[in-house]
Specification:
Blueprint (H helix, E strand, L loop, with lengths): L5 H22 L2 E2 L2 E7 L2 E4 L7 E2 L5 E2 L4 E4 L4 E5 L5 E4 L3 E11 L4 E16 L15 E5 L2 E6 L2 E7 L4 E7 L10 E6 L4 E5 L2 E6 L8 E2 L5 H7 L23 H10 L55 E4 L2 E4 L7
Parallel strand pairs: 10-11
Antiparallel strand pairs: 1-9, 2-5, 2-7, 3-4, 3-6, 6-9, 7-8, 8-10, 9-10, 10-13, 11-12, 12-15, 13-14, 14-17, 15-16, 17-18, 19-20
Length: 330
Amino acid sequence: MHTVRPRSVIFGLVGLLVLAAWGSAQAQMQPASAELVRATGRVDLMPKGQTAWMPGSVGARLVEGDQIRALAGGSADLVLPDGSTILIAENSRFAVTKLDYDVANRDRDASFHVVAGKVRAQVSQAAVTVIRARQSNFNISTPSGVAAVRGTIVVLAYNPSTQETLTFVFPSPGQSAAAARVTFVNKNGQAVTVTGGNFVRQVGNNPPGQPTPIGTLPTAVQTALTTASNTSTQGSTELVVVSVPLPTPQETQNTANSGGAGTGTGTPGTVQVSNPAPPTGPPDYSGSGDPNCAAGTGVNCKGSPPPNICPRGQFGTPPNCSTCMSPPCE
């Protein structure tokens, strides 16, 4: 007769309990929503599967696949279930591509996409990271890459006309600059980790540049970074067309993982590429316009359309500006 040893019984019970706990943790991750808590000026929403924009109002909830835009002079604030907040600046279009949340463990799986414009996200520190220990659980993508954010403040801007992504990192209140980290990964898996007080610029398919201190920018630019000001994408076609390509959550996660963005490893400020080359062309300071505006000598200043942007009420890229002749044209 075979005798069951007590130790075997104990190990078996422990194994069952571990499996049950794992299954429970996995099952508690549920689709969540972002609440629109402030809307100033013209703010529109386009639910997933719809083909027309509709006015956005406070209290509206955005779920996976929904989009929001703020036109000239407008802006909006979103609050996520984990307490994180996102500011959508003027002349910006933003999409929720994935938003799952575990109420019991306060764990999240969130991905967003900047179609055009500027956003400011204050991301809370994730409470649980065991399930996805090697993945970032808060990603903001642009058409040229992904910013994997780990519990800090990030300002991310994308200009479709220049294919330029700018990533600015600020420490959260009480957080050290060294602990504030965002890893930006381009579509080729070339990555750089940026710490608090620095920013990085990346253009097209080029590798990201070296992190640069935000303090080197003009004072007026630094002040404008975290506000709703953004003139760089005024009149952008991407703000008015209905259909734009959005990455799937898996594509976003794959890009983040390709650069090691979820591991928390690597030396901050080190670009993980061979022979990194800085992108060419003049920098675009996330909608703050020409830094010389503060001195009154710039040409890309608020109040007058810069030479590469169509006048207000038109869209496209100069000299090919178009006017909506029979509203609604979207």
